[in-house]
C-alpha cells in the first residue's frame, strides 16, 4: 500500500493542463469517495502544484493518506490545511482524529476544541472530544460534551450511549441507566446488554423517583 502511494506521489508531479486547483481537488475528492486512492493522490498533487495555498487540497490528500494508514503523512497535510486556513473547522477536527488515533488525547482535545470554537454546532467534534476526555477519566467534562450533543440533536443515539457509559463509570447509576435506556429506545440494541449487566442491581435506601 505504501509503495503504491509513493508511486502516486511521483505521478502527481506531472501536471495536466488547463484545470484549476479547485477542479483538481473536486476530482480528487470524487476519486477518494470511490476508493480510487492512487488517482486521487495524482489529482490532489496537481491541485497543490497549481495553487499551493488551496487548503482543501491538503485536507483531502490527508484523508487519502489516512486511508493508507499513513497517519504521519496525514498529520502533515492537515497541518498545512489549517495553516493555509486558520478558520477551517474540519481541518482541526481531522487533525484531532489523527492525534486521537495516536493516543495524544490532550492534543486531540485541543484540536476538537478549536473546531468547536470555529463551529459551535460541530457535533462530531463534541463527540470525539467527549471520547478523549473519557480516556483521561475527565468524566464531568465528557458528560457535558454529550449533553451538548443531545441539546443539538435530541435523537443522537451515540451521545446517549456514551453519556450513559460515562455516568455509570462516574457512579451516577440511575442517570446512566436512563441514558442507556434512551439509546436502546432510539435503536441501539447493544445498550440493553449493558443495562442487563450494570443496571439491574438491587437498590437499598434510595428512591427511584420520577
Radius of gyration: 21 Å
Helix content: over 70%
Number of strands: 0
SS-based structural class? mainly alpha
Mean pLDDT: 91
Global outline = elongated
CATH superfamily of the domain at 137-201: Tetratricopeptide repeat domain
Distance between the termini: 56 Å
- Helix and strand element order: HHHHHHHHHHHH
Number of helices: 12
Low confidence ranges = 6-16
CATH topology of the domain at 137-201: Serine Threonine Protein Phosphatase 5, Tetratricopeptide repeat
Q: Provide the β-strand percentage band.
A: under 5%
| The CATH C-level class name of the domain at 137-201 | Mainly Alpha
Instruction: Tell me about the largest β-sheet.
Output: none
Any guess at the CATH architecture of the domain at 137-201? Alpha Horseshoe
Polypeptide structure, described:
The chain has 210 residues and is mainly α. The chain has a domain at 137-201: Tetratricopeptide repeat domain (Serine Threonine Protein Phosphatase 5, Tetratricopeptide repeat). It is built from twelve helices and no strands. α11 (173-185) packs antiparallel against α12. The longest helix is centred in the N-terminal third of the chain and has 14 residues, at 37-50. The protein is elongated. 43% of the residues are buried. Residues 6-16 have low confidence and may be disordered.
Short descriptors:
210 residues, mainly alpha, Serine Threonine Protein Phosphatase 5, Tetratricopeptide repeat, 12 helices
Outline the fold blueprint.
Layout: H1 2-11, H2 21-33, H3 37-50, H4 55-67, H5 71-84, H6 89-101, H7 105-118, H8 123-135, H9 139-152, H10 157-169, H11 173-185, H12 190-199
Helix pairs in contact: 1-3, 2-3, 2-4, 3-4, 4-5, 5-6, 6-7, 7-8, 8-9, 8-10, 9-10, 10-11, 11-12
Amino acid at each position: 500500500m505504501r509503495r503504491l502511494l509513493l508511486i502516486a506521489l511521483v505521478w502527481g508531479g506531472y501536471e495536466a493542463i488547463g484545470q484549476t486547483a479547485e477542479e483538481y481537488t473536486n476530482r480528487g475528492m470524487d476519486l477518494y469517495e470511490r476508493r480510487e486512492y492512487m488517482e486521487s493522490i495524482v489529482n490532489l498533487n496537481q491541485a497543490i502544484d497549481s495553487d499551493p495555498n488551496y487548503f482543501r487540497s491538503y485536507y483531502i490528500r490527508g484523508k487519502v493518506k489516512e486511508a493508507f494508514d499513513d497517519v504521519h503523512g496525514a498529520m502533515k497535510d492537515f497541518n498545512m490545511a489549517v495553516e493555509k486556513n486558520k478558520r477551517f473547522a474540519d481541518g482541526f477536527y481531522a487533525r484531532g482524529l489523527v492525534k486521537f488515533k495516536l493516543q495524544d488525547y490532550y492534543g486531540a482535545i485541543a484540536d476538537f476544541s478549536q473546531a468547536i470554537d470555529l463551529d459551535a454546532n460541530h457535533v462530531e467534534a463534541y463527540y470525539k472530544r467527549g471520547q478523549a476526555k473519557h480516556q483521561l477519566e475527565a468524566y464531568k467534562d465528557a458528560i457535558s460534551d454529550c449533553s451538548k450533543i443531545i441539546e443539538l440533536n435530541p435523537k443522537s443515539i451515540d451521545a446517549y450511549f456514551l453519556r450513559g457509559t460515562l455516568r455509570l463509570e462516574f457512579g451516577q447509576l440511575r442517570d446512566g441507566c436512563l441514558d442507556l435506556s434512551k439509546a436502546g429506545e432510539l435503536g441501539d440494541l447493544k445498550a440493553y446488554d449493558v443495562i442487563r449487566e450494570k443496571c439491574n442491581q438491587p437498590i437499598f435506601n434510595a428512591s427511584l423517583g420520577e
